[in-house]
Amino acid sequence: MLTMSANPHAAFPSIPAPFLTLWSNAAGVYGEAMRANTQQLLFSSAAVIQEQMLRAFITASQSCADALAKNAMVVQRQSMERFADANGKVVGMMGHALTQVWMESMQPAR
To pair with 106 at 20 to 30 A between CA atoms, which of 19, 62, 68, 91? Predict the structure, then answer.
């Protein structure tokens, strides 16, 4: 038959000192493992972020250089087209002026 007792030692038996020390030491071992895991996660994450940022910066720099080179080629081509167009207009203007001078020289004197 089961009886109830108001004595706290009956409800909560005492734990021997070596077991208390064991639990304290075990908690310390797990705590150190958690600290090492957290530290490794933090440092490795920082390294990954740093590496990815460096790669992104290098990629962005290369993309920018490529875009600038393409832009320079487009601007150079457009510039040459403008100069060729201007050259054609000047040749036309010179031809027109020469034609006028020639036509005026062909008219009889008054």
Answer: 91
